[in-house]
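Listing S7. Sequence submitted for prediction.
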Amino acid sequence: MKQWIAMAGSAALMTLSVPAGAWVTNSAPALLPTPLVRQALEQDPTVLEARRLLAAAGHGAAALREGSHEWVTRATVQSRRYDAGGRSNEWEAGLERAFRIGGKARLDGDIGKAENIIAKAQVGEAIHESALALADLWMDVIAARRLREVVSEQRGFAQESLMAVESRRKAGDASLLDVNLATTDLIEMDRQLSAAASSEAKAQAKLRARFPLITELPQLVTDPRPLETGQAQWYERILAESDPVRIAEGQARKAALSADRMRADRTPDPTVGVFVASEARRSERVYGVSVSIPLGGAYRNERMLQALQEAEAARARLEGKRRELEMEVITTYIDATGSFERWSLSSRGLASIQSSARLTQRAYALGEVDLQTLLLARKQALVATMASEQARIEVLRAQSRLMIDAHLVWDLQED
């Protein structure tokens, strides 16, 4: 039953089961309006964190454009003693700064842009993950509510059975054992109903704790439809919208630029300055220009080799992300198509099984069947109903995941 609760929640996005080939983008908001969802997502702590990191990346990019070299002031005061006697109080003041050469300023600016792209993709991924969390929590509410409704219905049947048994007991047509069995059945239904009510309350509490703005009551769902778009098309769409892939692409780009930057850094940046000095008892003024250039060594070369290897690792990581995404899409697509087939099979004959249970309930009240037959019919109907619901929810959960991953609902694209 717990498994059924976890899976039944996907019914909340029942309209996500529309034919995928149409790429319908306004289906899910029929239950959760896009403006409300986007407002709730923007208030989620994970999205707020990503937004702040994006702002920080903007400042980091600006710092890279400016460069780390700054003007440096220098002052020297000295006293010179002459052998012939007397002293000369002298001073020197200068201003100097290092300058990036060899295209380093352009590379630093490109690295800053790459960091901005990565941070922006991380915002998109935070919104995507938050949307999945919202869908799951919303689905959990639907699941718990549907479970409570099913158990409540079964509890009503158990109550009717007990009343029928007691009536037949008074008429001398039922034994005390039958009364005990019917009473035990009713108590079990009460226990399950209490557990279902607690599960629903917890599901609602979790949803409101994470997304306080989502206060609408979930609605019932319709039956799913089969996917009309093939697996390859889903992969192409999800790959084009995948923020983890965008992040990996940005990281690969940044790593390549960093390698170029370390290669350029093998040519040291010169430091150029100007200075003025007063010497010989203030009778001399000295004006000059200074230039200093570090001598490159093995350190710069090793850092360049390190950056080149990190760039290769980033490219491998990008390819791994693409393959990982393909596996996820294949798995989700197979789940969607397979669960739809299972739902179709389980739903066949469900109406007749439920009808038979209701007829058996009436037949027992009329004394036409015994209690064991009634309990067996009700159990069969409950098992069949749960199997059909579980299969249906499996379809909706997989299809909703595809729709969210493809950014076809709630305007999940991050401009």
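Caption to Listing S7: primary sequence and predicted structure tokens for the chain studied. The chain has one domain: 2-74+100-259+326-405. The chain is about 65% helix and 10% strand.
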